[in-house]
Prior knowledge:
Elements: E1 2-14, E2 25-40, E3 50-55, E4 60-65, H1 66-72, H2 89-100, H3 111-126, E5 131-137, H4 147-161, E6 176-177, H5 180-198, H6 204-211, E7 214-218, E8 221-225, E9 232-237, H7 244-257, H8 259-281, H9 290-311, H10 316-326, E10 332-335, E11 342-347, H11 353-365, E12 369-372, E13 381-383
Parallel strand pairs: 3-5
Antiparallel strand pairs: 1-2, 1-13, 2-5, 2-7, 3-4, 6-13, 7-8, 9-11, 9-12, 10-11
Helix pairs in contact: 2-3, 3-4, 3-5, 4-5, 4-6, 5-6, 7-8, 8-9
Residues 146, 148-149, 198, 205, 244 line the site of magnesium ion.
Amino acid sequence: xxxxxxxxxxxxxxxxxxxxxxxxxxxxxxxxxxxxxxxxxxxxxxxxxxxxxxxxxxxxxxxxxxxxxxxxxxxxxxxxxxxxxxxxxxxxxxxxxxxxxxxxxxxxxxxxxxxxxxxxxxxxxxxxxxxxxxxxxxxxxxxxxxxxxxxxxxxxxxxxxxxxxxxxxxxxxxxxxxxxxxxxxxxxxxxxxxxxxxxxxxxxxxxxxxxxxxxxxxxxxxxxxxxxxxxxxxxxxxxxxxxxxxxxxxxxxxxxxxxxxxxxxxxxxxxxxxxxxxxxxxxxxxxxxxxxxxxxxxxxxxxxxxxxxxxxxxxxxxxxxxxxxxxxxxxxxxxxxxxxxxxxxxxxxxxxxxxxxxxxxxxxxxxxxxxxxxxxxxxxxxxxxxxx
Length: 388
Ligand SMILES: Nc1ncnc2c1ncn2[C@@H]1O[C@H](COP(=O)(O)OP(=O)(O)O)[C@@H](O)[C@H]1O
Ligand SMILES: C[C@@](O)(CCOP(=O)(O)O)CC(=O)O
Ligand SMILES: [Mg+2]
């Protein structure tokens, strides 16, 4: 039994961090993906008794014997597929031991969280069967573009696509979408994986990676959005590494120290996200031209960035990108958890290509990496044939 699954990364146009505390946020998928190829041995096939994880881009391979997993994770018999369970503290400890035994290179130790999520999702959905998962990704890891969620969504999609938990026509060729209710199940399982990586995720990243498009999201509920204007975003990766779990925990600690002030910040972000969502969706008219709508978005992005600074998640490298784009009268904000990572800059529809080229050249001369990604594409998909 073999399948491939892919799931996109994302940008957050407004509301990161505040969304963890109940505010509205707006996000869109980007056309960068994590892809998982999964092969599970059937009862009739001979196998090597191993569960293998190959992180191909990094040239790393990990494997665990079925006996070892059974000994350390006694509850690893398959769970009820339709009601995903959270990883208990005991299981988390056992999984940490399984990961530590693999001697991950010190420079790549951040991968430990992703590998733990793999073990939890694999054993919960398929129990202890020999298998090989090969992962590739063109998303930068730990940069705010949701690589953790896209990893968990593509993994959950592949695992469920080879289970009886979803309904798929395995004889169909090419990339296939899930039914709505199956997408919801993929999303729930991915959220359990994302919890292992983020600690306390809001669920926005796995939701937009699963369903694709552009969404507004509040307290676990998504609303699909339909943009009525062109939205071109420049993504600048500062290449400053950071970790979402630590940044989310830092904002929670600040909230405990200053509950009233932070509650006002989160309320302001909620209003910004709602206004941003309605601006993006309202039809351009004589009252509000595309240019005026872009002006509104720019102001809202700048206000959101100011509030992210209040939360303590900006960074000197982010400030450099903001200053550089402002020289060209362009508005920017960090996207994702901040502390480094990626910055979004709105490129107005009528902006001359020469200006875009100039701003990119200047940002890249600072050592940053720029990309113009398409936003709002498809969510999780699977493919059963090896030719597509
Ligand atoms: N392709 C992958 N293979 C293994 N682990 C991954 C992969 N993509 C993401 N991860 C896990 O997610 C972590 C990065 O997640 P995070 O800090 O939330 O940043 P982001 O989601 O913005 O990329 C990595 O350190 C790793 O643990
Ligand atoms: C900061 C946060 O709002 C988004 C994190 O995104 P990323 O992992 O930095 O891509 C956290 C969350 O919503 O779970
Ligand atoms: Mg993440």
